[in-house]
Design goal:
This protein is α/β, with parallel strands linked by helices and 268 residues long. 33% of the residues lie in helices and 27% in strands. α5 runs parallel beside α6 (180-195). It is globular. The structure holds adenosine-5'-triphosphate (ATP) and magnesium ion (MG).
Length: 268
């Protein structure tokens, strides 16, 4: 069925001059599914995520969202479709406050007679609520992001993605800079986001996180997809490490919607 997947990317290629960052990658994700995207440095993970977020245009390939072919020419188009991204560098504006970052591009307006003004108090109230919901401590929504720790920045980025009930969220190494406790909290936030039915693409180098968080794992090696496996089929992360290094050539399951695979898993 054409409408089975929330997003389906077919034969995606991306060249940077002589460098082939992606060499014909197929990728799909269903609503409510968490897909871990793994692979060595330079394998093409961030490039794929940037293409799915509209930040980078592929050299060739097709992308369908809810069964319809789309051109993700910029991040606004992706955002309008409900695709939110937390980039490797977090993509926050250091000179803005926590609340301003969360509402960037979607500022709330208050009408006062003929005047239109920013509804600052309401934005701070809603930003504080979203952060509290994620059970992460950020001192004040009026604080500048420049003064926050890595974990607090992470919380802001996740809150921003979550406040808008996204269809899909792309997370590029969201916990790379975090301590143990901050990582725990960020993982709790991701679980909350997933439980709300949002599709999650999670890039990480942490195998325990892959095993704990994902429904399916996609493995990239040198610009190609060499693994696409339901996490429930994995006894340990060893098989993934073999796919990453090339000790195992390929392990690609037939694409099937998340719900169908869940039902199959429950039956066996
Ligand atoms: N803007 C760019 N210009 C030129 N080459 C690029 C650019 N972005 C990525 N590349 C190249 O494309 C390849 C894939 O890079 P990418 O950032 O997607 O890897 P990655 O899997 O995210 O790695 P990491 O785990 O280190 O973040 C690399 O060889 C990289 O050097
Ligand atoms: Mg990367």
């Amino acid at each position: 069925m054409a409408h089975s997947f929330l997003l389906q990317a077919t034969d995606i290629r991306k060249s940077y001059g002589a460098v082939e960052a992606l060499r014909g990658v197929n990728f799909h994700i269903s609503r409510g599914e968490t897909v871990a995207l793994i692979g060595d440095n330079g394998a093409g993970k961030s490039t794929l995520v940037k293409i799915l977020s509209g930040a980078t245009r592929p050299t060739s390939g097709a992308i369908a969202f809810e069964g319809r072919n789309i051109a993700l020419d910029n991040t606004d188009i992706a955002r309008d479709l409900g695709i939110e991204t937390v980039y490797q560098d977090l993509g926050l504006c250091s000179n803005l406050t926590v609340a301003e970052n969360i509402f960037l591009g979607r500022e709330m307006i208050r009408r006062l007679g003929p005047l239109r003004m920013l509804a600052k108090r309401e934005m701070h109230r809603r930003a504080a609520h979203a952060l509290k919901d994620l059970s992460i401590n950020v001192p004040r929504t009026t604080a500048s992001v420049a003064g926050l720790s890595g974990g607090q920045r992470q919380a802001v980025a996740l809150a921003r993605a979550r406040l808008w009930e996204r269809a899909m969220i792309l997370l590029d190494e969201p916990t790379a800079a975090l301590g143990v406790q901050e990582t725990r909290r960020a993982m709790d936030s991701m679980r909350q986001i997933r439980n709300e039915g949002t599709a999650v693409v999670l890039i990480t180098h942490s195998m325990p996180m892959v095993m704990e968080m994902s429904d399916r794992v996609v493995v990239m090696r040198r610009g190609e997809k060499v693994g696409d496996v339901s996490t429930s089929k994995l006894e340990s992360a060893d098989a993934l490490v073999s796919l990453i290094t090339g000790a195992t050539e390929r392990w690609i399951e037939e694409p099937a919607p998340f719900a169908a695979r869940m039902a199959e898993g429950a039956a066996t």
